[in-house]
Design goal:
With 108 residues, the protein is an alpha+beta fold. The chain has one helix and seven strands, in the order H-E-E-E-E-E-E-E. Helices cover 16% and strands 36% of the residues.
Length: 108
């Protein structure tokens, strides 16, 4: 009985634990209030989850996501951090799970 309950609990948690593919999209818009003349800016951040396929430090990273492989060009402000927000200096390895946050429009 105890073994079957543990198995059932693991079966219920597994889909949540392995659901690593998500995308968060926010947009950046500048609005001017015609009455007051004030400007408001909304920022957009998008993220892609997956595993590293290839990584060239300071240049590119290819991430295999649920939607397929996604290639990113790394800018000069790009940084790699761990879950605690500490900067990582070691290069990423193929197969590592990552979440890439990026900005841009269309295919850029």
């Amino acid at each position: 009985m105890k073994k079957s309950m543990i198995t059932l609990a693991c079966a219920m948690i597994a889909p949540i634990a392995f659901a690593q593919t998500s995308a968060t999209t926010t947009t950046e818009r500048t609005k001017v209030n015609p009455v007051t003349g004030t400007t408001t800016t909304e920022t957009t951040t998008t993220s892609t989850d997956g595993t590293v396929t290839t990584y060239t430090p300071g240049k590119t990273i290819v991430v295999k996501s649920e939607a397929g492989p996604v290639s990113f060009v790394l800018g000069t402000a790009a940084r790699i951090v761990d879950g605690a927000g500490k900067i990582i200096t070691a290069p990423l390895r193929s197969g590592q799970k990552v979440r890439v946050y990026y900005t841009g429009t269309g295919e850029n």
